[in-house]
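Minutes, project check-in

Agenda point 3 was the complex the collaborators sent over. CS summarized: two entities, 584 residues total, and the question is how they sit relative to each other. Sequences were read into the notes so everyone works from the same version.
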Amino acid sequence: MARHDEGVITVGRSRAGTVAANTAGIIFGLFMLFPVYWVLNTAFKPEAEVKSFSPTFLPQSPTLDNFRSALGEELFIPAMINGLIITAMAVAAALVVGFLAALAIARFQFYGRKAIILIVLAVQLVPFLALLIPLFLMLQRAQLTDSLPGVALVYLVLLLPYTVWTLRGFISGIPRELDEAAMIDGCTRAQVFWKIILPLTGPGLVATSVYGFIQAWNEFIIINTLNSPENQNLMAWLLYNQTERGTAWGPLMAGAIITSIPVVIFFLLIQRNIATGLTAGAVKG
Amino acid sequence: MRHGRTPFIIGFLAVPVALYATFVVAAYIQTFQLAFTNWSGLGTIKYVGFDNFERLWNDDLFWRSVGHNLYLLILLPIITIAIALVFAFLLNAGGGSHGGKTRGIFGSKFYRVIFFFPQLMALAIVAVIFGRVFSTDESGMLNGLFPESWSPWLFLADERWALTCILAVMVWQAVGFYVVLFSAGMGSIEQEVYEAAALDGANRITLFFKITIPLLWNTLQVAWVYLGIAAFDAFALVNIMSVDRGGPDGATSVLAMMIYRNAFEYSQAGYASALGVALFFLTLTFAALTLRVTRREAH
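CS then shared the predicted structure for the full assembly.
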């Protein structure tokens, strides 16, 4: 391609079009940000300002009272710990099980491989709610209702399709010649998987674990159905508090912020690569 | 390379296959089985043949819920994909061209981050916030913006608009993710393709429809399926936001909501299972249709 000086190729664009595009972007951005802003604004306002009928754009006398009050709630800290335990168990299990399954599907041809892929995809399609009754019964029989491992097990099943599918995409992207070369050099098959494929799948493991974290951390329907109030996560706590207290918006929004912090941190850490990670499985088909 | 494969295949797949056999396949078989009983959720189970399905067929709320699911199924993907495509295009190529290279609008990288925020917020939080947005008195964010002389809009309390309000929230939550997804796809389209077309006199709109869309077809297909799944669910938002959970007067009821209420509130596990079977077949029909349609158009 020859090099062009600025303005030589106009690509059919006018300055007015560019201005319009930027304006549209700003309006859309504000639209997306507004509720987030509103949460922050409410969380830092003292109660009198939250209830005031002439709302202000910024807290007049910002306060951390709402955060203190949320953290001081009886079940807040336990719910946070429950959420972390369940999420950690589900994500760790999904990574191990998902990586091995992805290896099998990506690196071996075998009878029933297509069927497994199809089932993995079909599971993603079906609304999980249709399975809630039998799941409840099964866990009850195994005495896993109202327990953290029980919920983690269900989350594992929910996270697996995406994990397997995405990791499969990453593993397929690693040239087979690499495996063969290592085996010629005397590696066993297990060593190939452990020393070559696993490290090269690193970005995929990060992407899927962040996705898994977000899903498991934000889930509340299943945990709410399976567990008693002592064994809820923060999401379920948040909703319970909303129905119980109705209009205590300040502490509720402060709770919502605390609840979102881990997810936002994870997201900011990997946001550069998020689109690649999220689409790797889908696009490489 | 062949020897010693079998232990690996069996070892690697045993756990996931066992998990699916138990938690998905066996669970579905049980749902189908329970659909033919009048089980309440406790006590004895009695088979009643097709009674539940007959009841379902004559249940007005069931048909309305199916209608609401279809309404979401059609509008959610269309609106979300349309908005996301336009903004992804702006992010990638809205800033005009400089030195022969098309650029995104000013601040593209920043937008990419903030568009993703709604995706990070849990549905529970989103639903609570939008409950405030749509509040029917002047403390509501939207009603607060209107002059006091107006009678406040009812939003979620208005039968005609309640479902549209839910749809709006679903679009709001989903759109950012697809902006990021599509703009990643657009970023991988070679600049030269655009430049060649531009030299031939193509304007922005032609570039968009003749180059961007066809080259993004695979990604669009994925987006359609994911949004379809979201439309079939919709439970979380309806559960938290709607008046009387599925109301007013059934105006926002969706299948998942009906299943949940029958199973865990009305003690009608048998009927809830029949609804689950209906939802299963609806989802499969959607998946099969999507595959057929998109495959045909791809060739």
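Noted in discussion: Residues 245 and 252 of chain A are 9 Å apart (CA to CA).
Follow-up: revisit at the next meeting once the mutant set is ready.
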